[in-house]
Amino acid sequence: MMFEKVLVANRGEIAIRIFRTLREMGIGSVAVYSEADADALFVEHADEAYLVGPPPATESYLNSSRILEVAASAGAQAVHPGFGFLAENAPFAADVTAAGLVWIGPPPSAIEAMGSKVEARRLMEQAGVPIVPGVTDPVDDLDAATGIAEEIGYPVAVKAAAGGGGKGFRVAPTADDLEEAFEGARRESEKFFADSVVYLERYLPNPRHVEIQVLADGNGQCIHLGERDCSIQRRHQKLVEETPSPVVSDGLRERMGEASIRAAVAVDYSGAGTCEYLVADEDFFFLEMNTRIQVEHTVTEMVTGLDLVREQLRVAAGEGLSITQDQVRPRGHAFECRINAEDASTRFLPTPAPITGYREPAGPGVRVDSGVRAGSDIPEIYDPMVAKLITWDVDREAARRRMIRALDEYVVEGPKTLIPFHRWLFEQPEFIAGGAMHAELERFSNEPTPIPPVDGSAGQPAPERVEGDADLTERRFVAEVGGRRFDVRLRYEPLGPVAAPVAAPSRRQRRSGGGGAVAAPDEAVTTPMQGTVLRVMVEKGQTIEEGQVICIVEAMKMENEVAAHRAGTLTELHVADGDTVEADQVIAAVE
Predict the structure, then answer these.
(1) What is the reported pLDDT for 165?
(2) Of the residues 180, 202, 224, the one at which a domain ends
């Protein structure tokens, strides 16, 4: 029997996405929210909403006991975890079941098995699923890691056993890099997963990252819905996804689909899940299994016509899948762009800020999954995703052009977003040809790279000085002559000084009450974002090189390296591990 009321233990766009399917199915919805999300859009989309704690996720969205209390008091019959937070937390899934509720996801045993990459590798090897050469046992110390690396050969990947989403992942190109990669992966794994266990495997330098969507009903029926190509990444975080993959042949697709079904059956899977692989030519190697709905499930929905959340609900309610393998007939091509509050021109640094203006694109074949509106705030303590922009058309080129049109229509004012980056990406010849852009994205992640502004942004441009003539100013106007619209550029000599465009004060300025920023001295090293210092990498008095990392700052669930802008001696150091820093704060001096 289908549920009457479901609690969604998540926030933002994925919560709204689930609420919409619940409403279509006539099922009541319950939201939970933190104090930081009291005015968030997703709260209004639910039939009922309950406060579960302060802004930190550990005290709200990860507060499993409080969430179960809300589920009981609201009369919910089931819990849908979305993705992130508690979605792949086996103890929470077990607690949901123990409380007499239905967990809308795979059994806790499957989550636990696939949540440990070490155990997952062992199970996949037994099930005949290809795995990357490496070890299946935890690596306890650097000496053991060194021996294993020499055996399997460099480059090696050091990976958190409990990791996911690029967290707890480091690459050692040579033996000289192994210690830093090993310690970094352990530190990040402990922070994000409370588990410092890591393992090693051979690193494939430029593979494609391709995943297979599976659905299982828990009663023996398991199907796959084809692949998604997720190779466009920075720092192992996905930026663009598409289906079908431009490099997967029909034969490879069939073999990967069959392997994914074997993987799901091996752990008695039920519901929606994704097997991720590294693909090199016609070879593929198991990477991990995500035991939840994926961020990029949208592109699979666009080409198959299925509602994957609806399928999750059907399976959890005991109704089984609505489709069999021979009925799966993907059609056309779909892209998804993750519209994050990040600035690609400054190494994808996060840009949390209030949204002062917002307009979504529309039209045939365009879908936007968002959780914001004008007036929404992008908090510093949660994931930087603003929305997901999805386009579909009859083939890859048509879908690509549709995405460009949709990006041109998309307006987000306030925080800088990845819209200009995506607009640039979709015009690159390598991307148009189906390439993974590995080299370019590595460059974007490691050095400041200018991104051309997107044409057609809303609002009247401010006056601009005319290049090469200090006495002339240019303004742009729109005029209609005979009913036809013309864009007019007017160059003139101003009567007085041209005022510079006035920018809204930063968060730091608003908190301090100041109206302007104080210029830092040439020797100063400043933080480009607000966050928490995870680790200081240098000592006062040390001689350092230009580009050497001073400290690692976590902001919006991402680690960011703050590097020296010049070579010299570190004469001042004002931060320590665990300190909170503000944007533009002086943390060190190099002379």
Answers:
(1) 58
(2) 202
**pLDDT tops 90 at residue 158:** yes
CA–CA dist 438, 208 (Å, integer):
9
CA 161/CA 188 separation, integer angstroms: 12
Supply the CATH number for residue 180's domain. 3.30.1490.20
CA separation for the pair 9, 87 (Å, rounded): 8
Give the residue carrying structure tokens 């930087």: 384
CATH number of the domain encompassing residue 358? 3.30.470.20
Digit-coded pLDDT (tens) for 479-492: 666 655 566 776 66
For residues 175 and 157, give the distance between their C-alpha atoms in angstroms, rounded to a whole number.
12
Which of 400, 425, 446 is where one domain is finished?
446
The model scores a pTM over 0.90: no
Q: What is the mean pLDDT of the chain?
A: 87
Please choose, from the candidates 582, 523, 575, the residue with its C-alpha nearest in 3D space to the C-alpha of residue 550. 575
Same domain, yes or no, for 242 and 275?
yes
DSSP characters for 515-574? SSPPPPPTTEEE-SS-EEEEEE---TT-EE-TT-EEEEEEETTEEEEEE-SS-EEEEEE-
Q: How many other CB atoms sit within 10 Å of the CB of residue 355?
A: 19
CA distance 558 to 547: 19
Is residue 501 in a domain? Answer: no
b/e string for 62-98 if b means 16 or more Cβ within 10 A? bbbebbbebbeebebbbbbbbbbbbbbbbebbbbbee
**DSSP codes of every residue in 400-456:** HHHHHHHHHH-EEESS--SHHHHHHHTT-HHHHTT---HHHHHHHHHS----PPPTT
Strand order in the sheet with 28-34: 48-53, 28-34, 5-8, 78-80, 102-103
Domain count, the chain: 4
Place of tokens 């992640």: 445
What is the C-alpha separation between 246 and 231, in angstroms, rounded?
11
Please name the residue that has the structure tokens 């975080």: 237
Identify the domain containing residue 195 by its residue range: 133-202
pLDDT at 347 over 70: yes
Model confidence at 534, in pLDDT bands (50, 70, 90)?
confident
Task: Say if residue 87 is in the same domain as residue 168.
Answer: no
Whether residue 187 is found in the same domain as residue 246: no
Answer yes or no: is 490 within a domain.
no
- Token look-up 């796959």 returns 224
Average pLDDT, integer, range 346-370: 94
Same domain, yes or no: 147 and 83: no
Q: 394, exposed or middle or buried, with CB in 10 Å at 0-12, 13-18, 19+?
A: exposed
Q: 140 and 91 share a domain?
A: no
Could you tell me if 311 and 215 lie in one domain? yes
Q: Phi then psi for 451, rounded to 5 degrees?
A: -110, 125
Tell me which of 86 and 447 has the higher pLDDT.
86
Residue 56 φ/ψ region, left for φ over 0, alpha for ψ in the -120 to 50 degree band, beta for the rest: beta
Task: Identify the pLDDT of residue 505.
Answer: 36
